[in-house]
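Let's sit down with a protein and look at its sequence and fold side by side. Please make up or recall a protein chain and show it to me in full. Label the sequence line and the structure token line clearly, so we can match residues to local backbone shapes. Go ahead whenever you are ready, and we will take it from there.
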Amino acid sequence: MGLFDSLAGALGGTLKDVLGQAEASALPGLVSAVLGKTDLGSLQGIVNKLQEAGLGTQVQSWLGSGANLPVSADQLRAALGNEQVRQLAQQFGLPIDAALKLLAEHLPTAVDQASPNGVIDDAAAQGQAGSLADQAGIGSIKP
């Protein structure tokens, strides 16, 4: 069972419900928590990987103060490679295509929110995940 499934189950809803109800500021922490259980390690880890794979224009838009450019599930699949995609899907508790779609939908916002000064603050992002879990009364649930 993935982290988001644990959160959704504890809150009595679906993954989509949990993400819809979560405070917008908690999104970087939720994504960071999942990434922390993969070889990517953090938001900074996935940002580095995407930049190395030629998606620097999108990443820079997320780090900057303008509009966030989209990234597709196919772009993420190509940039991350099979093993990291498999790890992400496992941690999300979703099939690979669904996990990539979820990540494509939420990663730009997560990176944008975790980088108010143009640099990712992973410590702050991870702290936000903890506070959301604590607020929801599920801080002690282990995936």
Notes: Residues 96-114 form the longest helix (19 residues). The radius of gyration is 14 Å. Residues 6-13, 127-143 have pLDDT under 50 and may be disordered. The domain at 3-136 is CATH 1.10.10.690 (Arc Repressor Mutant, subunit A).
